[in-house]
Amino acid sequence: MSIAPQYINKQKIRRAFDRAADSYDDAAVLQKEVCRRLLQKLDYIKLSPQLILDAGVGTGEAVAPLMKRYKKSRVIALDLSERMLAKALRHGGLLRKPELVCADVEQLPFRENSFELIFSSLTLQWCNDLPATMQDFLRVLKPGGLLVFTSFGPDTLKELRTCWSQIDDAVHVNQFTDMHDVGDGLLQAGFADPVMEAETITVSYESIDKLMADLRAIGANATAEGGRTGLTAPSVLPKLRQAYDVYRIENRLPASYEVVYGHAWKPAASQPEKHELRVNITEL
């Protein structure tokens, strides 16, 4: 397995998502759709969890659906951003609310064998050490427990990355891990029966200015160390607009997202690990 290391400053990420908490829900059209599709995958899995971890809960898009689906469960909502967690709390009812934990998904503050289900939508791309994160997920899952997640693949925002490469050598778009490497990481961590899928979802914009504004609004403009801020500097934007305009189709600009879906089980105490990876790729 060859997962390229990245060095994301978690304090920088926390600040970006704290700032984005109020604007996130209006701009996160893609993120909401990906979360909905991940929730749908639970339709085909027989599970009755008592304790669920929503790892990287954000503003809480999955909280109410998880509570509705698993009516007797407790949902632990974990996020690095306190302001995002405050938004997530609104999704609970008067008698049943998510339990909030402000922590890094790479440093889970839970005992081993705690959860029957870990649900994580579009969070793993912010991890510096993905194999170690997978191992920690396995640690806190109970035997027979399930991990379901989404992340971004390397073709995410490929148009934007290409355009920036024509302007300078700085990191403006993070590198994302290939689906096959994520699946290999699950196997190496000790998960059983991993299944990986990927699809390309294209969001269209009237202008690159609107794309950049949406990335800022959801906190996704934070980059790994070596990246530059000030992405909308007056001297840079005209060059970026000109470079991106070659992608224009019917007066719309595409932004591609490679969405990776995965799920895997923690082996039961009497169940041997199954070292087999199933993969499916689609394009939308």
Task: Kindly name the structural category.
Answer: alpha/beta
Instruction: Enter the CATH topology name.
Output: Rossmann fold
- Provide the CATH top-level class: Alpha Beta
Number of DSSP strands?
8
Uncertain spans, ≥5 residues at pLDDT below 50?
Answer: 273-277
Q: How widely separated are the two ends?
A: 28 Å
CATH architecture: 3-Layer(aba) Sandwich
Major sheet attributes: 8 strands, mixed
| Integer average pLDDT | 90
Portion of residues in beta strands equals: 15-25%
The CATH H-level superfamily is: Vaccinia Virus protein VP39
Give Rg in angstroms.
19 Å
Provide the spatial order of strands within the biggest beta sheet. Answer: 3-2-1-4-5-7-6-8
Overall geometric form = globular
User: How many domains, in number, for the residues?
Assistant: 1
Annotation field: number of helices: 10
Helical fraction equals: 25-40%
What do these coordinates show?
This protein has ten helices and eight strands. The longest helix has 13 residues, at 29-41. Helix content is 32%, strand content 24%. It has a single domain (10-154, 175-201, 257-283), classed as Vaccinia Virus protein VP39 (Rossmann fold), CATH 3.40.50.150. It has 284 residues and is α/β, with parallel strands linked by helices. α6 (130-140) crosses α8 (179-189). The model is unreliable at 273-277 (pLDDT under 50). The chain has helices at residues 10-20, 24-27, 29-41, 63-69, 82-89, 130-140, 158-165, 179-189, 208-217, 237-244; strands at residues 51-55, 74-79, 99-102, 115-121, 141-152, 192-205, 253-265, 278-283. β4, α6 (130-140) and β5 form a beta-alpha-beta unit. Strands 3-2-1-4-5-7-6-8 form an eight-stranded mixed sheet, sandwiched between helices.
